[in-house]
Amino acid sequence: MKLFILVASLCLTLSTVSSSLQPYEAIFNFGDSLSDTGNFLLSGALAFPVIGKLPYGETFFRRATGRCSDGRLVVDFIAEALGLPHLPPYLALSKGQDVKHGVNFAVAGATALDPQFFYQRKIGSVMWTNDSLSTQLGWFKKLKPSLCTTKQECDNYFKKALFLVGEIGGNDYNYAFFVGGNIKQLKASVPFVVEAITQATSALIEEGAVELVVPGNLPIGCSAVYLTLFRSPNEAVYDKRNGCLKAFNGFSKYHNSELKRALGALRLKYPHARIIYADYYRAAMPFYHAPQHYGFKSGTLRACCGGGGPYNFNNSARCGHIGSTACKDPSSYANWDGIHLTEAAYGHIAKGLIHGRFATPL
Question: For this UniProt entry, which residues form the secretion signal (predicted)?
Answer without folding.
Answer: 1-20
